[in-house]
Amino acid sequence: MDDTTAPLVALSNVSRTYDGGSLVALSAINLAVERGAFVSIVGASGSGKSTLVHIMAGFDWPTAGRVLWQGREVVDRHSWTALRREKIGIVFQEFLLLPTLSALENVEIAMSGTGLSASTRRSRAAELLDQVGLSGRLKHLPFALSGGERQRVAIARSIANGPELLLADEPTGNLDSRSTEAVLELLFALRRRAGMTLVLVTHDEAIASLADTVVRIKDGRIVDAGRGTQEAR
Ligand code: ADP
Ligand code: MG
Questions:
Q1: Closest residue (by CA) to atom 22 of ligand 1?
Q2: What is the pTM of this model?
Q3: Tens digits of per-residue pLDDT, 189-207?
Q4: What percent of the chain has a predicted confidence (pLDDT) above 70?
Q5: How many Å lie between the centroid of ligand 2 and the Cα of residue 47?
Q6: Which atom of ligand 1 is nearest to the CA of 217?
Q7: In what order do the strands lie in the sheet with 9-18?
Q8: Does ligand 1 lie within 6 Å of residue 47's CB atom?
C-alpha cells in the first residue's frame, strides 16, 4: 500500500554526477513535494533544474540518494514506466511532438498501453484538445501550429492519463509573452480542475513567484525554499 501521508514525491539526499564524477549536476538534494502542491524550481541555466526533473520522472537516476513516490523508493525502470504512464505527466520546453502525427494522434499515443479502445482513445484525445482550446486544430501537423498551440497539444498529451503529478520543465521557454500567459493560465486551470500537483521549472522569477513554494537552485544545490510572493490566478 502507498503511504497517503507521505509526500507525493520526495528526493532524499539525491546527488547526480556525470563524466565519472567530475561534473556535479546535483548535490545532496532534499525535496518533498506534497500532494496538491504547486512548487516552482528556479535557477540559472546549467544549475541542475532539468536534471532534477528528469530524476523525478525516472528518465535519469541519482548517483547517490533515493527517490520516493508516496513514501516508497522507486528503484526499477519498470516501476518508472508504470508511473509515467499512470501518474506522472511531463511537459518540455521543446514540446517534443512527433512531427509526422496530427495533434489528435500526438495526444492519442499517450494512451497506448492503457487498455482503452482505439475509439475511446480518439474521442478522449479530441476532448482533451477541446479542453486546451484546440478543437479546430485536430488534424493539423505540428509544423502547421504556432509554438503556443504546439505546447497546448503537448499539455493535452501530458494530462491524457489523468496524472497526479505534472512536471513542466521551462514550458514557456520557447514562447512569446502572449503564448506564455495563455500556457501558464492553462496549466493553472488544469491544476485547479484536477487537483494536480505541479512542479514548474523556470528561470523567470516572476513566474516562479506564483507558486506556493519556490525552490531556488544554484550549482546543483538548493539554496532556498520559501513561499511564493504572488497568487497564481
Ligand atoms: P538546467 O536545466 O538548470 O539548465 P541541467 O540540469 O540541464 O541544468 O544541467 C546541469 C549540469 O549537468 C550542466 O552542467 C549540464 O551540462 C550537465 N548535464 C546534464 N545532463 C547531462 C548528461 N546527460 N551528461 C553530462 N552532463 C550533463
Ligand atoms: Mg533545463
A1: 18
A2: 0.94
A3: 999 988 999 999 998 899 9
A4: 97
A5: 8
A6: 3
A7: 23-33, 9-18, 64-69, 72-73
A8: yes
